[in-house]
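Supplementary notes for students who missed Thursday's class. We covered one full example, reproduced here. Read the sequence, then the structure, then the short commentary at the end.
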Amino acid sequence: MATYNKKTVEDVDVKGKRVLVRCDFNVPQKDGVITSDKRIVEALPTIKYLMGQGAKVILCSHMGKPKGEVNPKYSLSAVAARLTELLGVKVALCADTIGPDAKAKAAALKDGEVILLENTRFDPREEKNDDAFVKELASLADLYVSDAFGAVHRAHASTAGVAKYLPAVCGYLIQKEISVMGKALTDPARPFVAILGGAKVSDKLNVIDNLLGKVDTLIIGGGMAYTFLAAKGYGVGKSLLDSEKIDYCKTMMEKAEKNGVKLLLPIDTTITESFPDPIDAKVDVAFVDSDKIPADKMGLDIGPKTAELYAKAVKEAKTVVWNGPMGVFENPILAKGTIAVAKALAESDAITIVGGGDSAAACEQLGFADQITHISTGGGASLEFLEGKDLPGISCLLDK
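Structure (token representation):
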């Protein structure tokens, strides 16, 4: 398990220094208009601290997947405009990332001022962590602050590479992520319950394996539950099945037993004839026990008895980590299991941590976000953190 005790912005003198801050401004947009500014708002504490300390702040981020080419659709211009509104000072957008405009604007910065570099992924060398690109980027600044938790599992130029050439520390967002999630995984208040959902077992192989050495109870839901049910010898009808992973699921059930971990699988399931098309189409559902799924039906959510069982386990917990929905939650009829789990977390007195992605979206859509202890800002990154993997964008920072 990678445990991190990294220096933060408060551990270095930033006054008068040019500080390159990697943020996660990969915000959803429609027709050039930002539809959720959550990620921008989350970056503000670090930016405001640096401004207040008299740093010259150079922000950078990727947006979307422009595949190394300049594409106006993925420009950060709307982000610069929103930052200007939120900070109450002009945040100028550079016309390039490491080109003449970025260099000129960075050189002209006064203490407490802020600029934003254009999309780092407009240059193909960003994702390759190309050393020439890394050097150019690092040459703009005296210090580097990593604060894009959603991107720390990638070893790109702006997430990890620049730490080779600049003293590197974390911002408040990353500090919070690694302290809350790190404590849950290394020294949790017990009982410690983890809930894993989502479609495929293969996406969560290492997470399941790692958590079985740490938790008191592991709860499985979502599409991946049917492979576990098949491993118990149940017929799963037309449900999602990762047939190559049945033996793996058997091994995990044995490991749980050996470690004294309670492994909870759905005791009933919500079945329908076919996958909804479009995703939010009206579907007729029925509930059956998990060992009685008809051959011509598919399970697309946990059933009501399972929802009750899972909520009870959450109620008894002192620490809960949740990653992945219980069913096809994009469809209101098939979202009941996910809603039940989100509600149980919201009503719990435990330390509750939701690991990014769909589970975070579910909590936000349902209005439970403010009742959760911590909602991770990075889907892929939080998953790799739960796996115990080394995150290159954090391990490159200076230790305390």
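Commentary. The chain has two domains: 9-173, 180-386. Residues 219 and 264 are 5 Å apart (CA to CA). If anything here is unclear, bring it to office hours.
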